Amino acid sequence: MYLSPIRPSDFDFFSSELMPRLGDQIVTYTPEGGMPEMPEESLVILGIPEDRGTEANAGCADAPDRIRKYLYALACPADDARLYDFGNIAVGQEVEDTYYALTETLAEFLKHDNTVLLLGGSQDLTFPAYKAYERISRIINISTIDPRFDIEPYEEMTSRTYMRHIVMQTPNYLFFHANLGCQKYFVGNSQLQLMDDLKFDAYRLGDLQKDMKRAEAMLRNADLVSVDIAAVRQSDAPGVGAPSPHGFYGEELCQMLSFAGKSDKVSCLGLFEVNPDYDRGDQTVHMAAQAAWHFIEGWFARVMDSPRLAPEQCRRYKVLMEDHGTELLFYKSKLSDRWWVEVPCDDPELHELYSRHLLLPCTYADYEQAMQGEIPALWWRYYNRLHP
Which residues on adjacent β-strands are paired with residue 210? Predict the structure, then answer.
């Protein structure tokens, strides 16, 4: 693995018996203590001090350790919490070297069923994170929390083109993509049409703020979650290269990362584009640390109750769609009240290939819609990906 150690003493935090800090529970790769043994089914933190792929946000490479300063000082989210910080990805002479180091290192952690929290760095690092799944031959879903789609039609890999590069990969290991929080004045009609042509989903900022349950379902459907901190409004997150007066509130970002942490499917989440150079009193790095904390808290609260993993913990509901000549199967967890709907696939080869993705997270509103005789739009979009 291509890693550089860190010094927790640089993140100086006070702890007490009444208030143990997260930093007390982190096994850290340090120059003195050496690298921890590879954990299994654990939560791992990796920093990536790389920003050569950013557009107009140079300086975000300094974010990982600045975020750690606040993250280590936050209260421990669970009494028995134990997680690992393997330091920072070693930055290469060329940005492609850093990409390779991240892909190889992340793939190694994923092989051991770990969940990895990436502290960037610029959002183009989502591409080598995707390549790590390709390296282990795992077809995935990606959800992005981003005001833009990052599918600009340029050959150069940047934080505004990485999603296009992922889509253009052959063979392709991306099954489904959902953008959460897009703002139409940043994407335009042609990009919205492109997302529709690709059978991807895009949820506008205002729609999600009215119904965060939809964000929960789409984050629960993801394997890889990529967060551009510019999705948060400037008043809450001034430390970005392209701030906007509109966006999610900081507490909404924390809520979404809690959703991602609680998902039994999410295995990697990246926080990108935090720029200490543009920050005010470390407001943005502090907010990013709190958002990361909510992901960590969610991870330790996982109940692993999806129908795929624990069918005995779910109730099944059949809804006959008479006008369509089909039947929808919904599942509701007895433990968390979360919902899924099954997407049929009659082709045995495709069924085996996409078996991890045939139970689609949804909401109670989708079930109610089906009860009214209307197939939910999300089900149709997903179904059409399996039956082009």
Answer: none
| Greatest distance between any 2 Cα atoms in the chain | 68
Beta strands in 80-173 (DSSP E): 83-89, 115-120, 140-145
Res 323: pLDDT: 78
DSSP string, 236-258: T---SSS--S-SB-HHHHHHHHH
Contact between 146 and 226 (Cβ < 8 Å): yes
Please tell me what DSSP assigns to residue 341: E
CA distances from 119 to 48, 102, 122, 270, 354 (A): 6, 12, 9, 6, 29
Contacts of 267 (CB under 8 A, 6+ apart): 110, 113, 114, 115, 116, 223, 224
**Cα gap 113→183, rounded to integer Å:** 35
pLDDT on residue 91: 96
Beta bridge partners of 316: 331
Token pair 């950013």 is found at 54
In whole angstroms, give the CA distance from residue 141 to residue 180: 13
300 SS3 class? helix
Beta bridge partners of 141: 176
Residues 151, 194 contacting (CB under 8 angstroms): yes
Residue type, 250: G
**Quick check: 160 and 186 in contact, CB under 8 A?**
no
Contact (Cβ atoms closer than 8 angstroms) between residue 102 and residue 132? yes
10-residue block means of pLDDT along the chain (388 residues)? 88 73 92 91 98 94 96 89 95 97 98 97 98 98 98 92 96 96 94 93 96 96 98 98 96 98 97 97 97 97 92 95 88 96 90 92 96 92 85
Query: Which pLDDT score is estimated for 172?
Result: 95
CA–CA distance, 378 with 201 (Å, rounded to integer): 8
Report the distance separating Cα 177 and Cα 196, nearest Å.
11
Structure tokens at 252: 């909404």
Whether residue 3 contacts residue 29, with contact meaning beta carbons closer than 8 Å, is answered with yes
β-pairing verdict for 339-342 and 326-333: antiparallel
CB 86 within 8 A of CB 36: yes
- 3-state percent helix, strand, coil for the chain, nearest multiple of 5: 40, 20, 40
Q: What is the pLDDT of residues 287-304, one digit of tens each?
A: 999 999 999 999 999 999
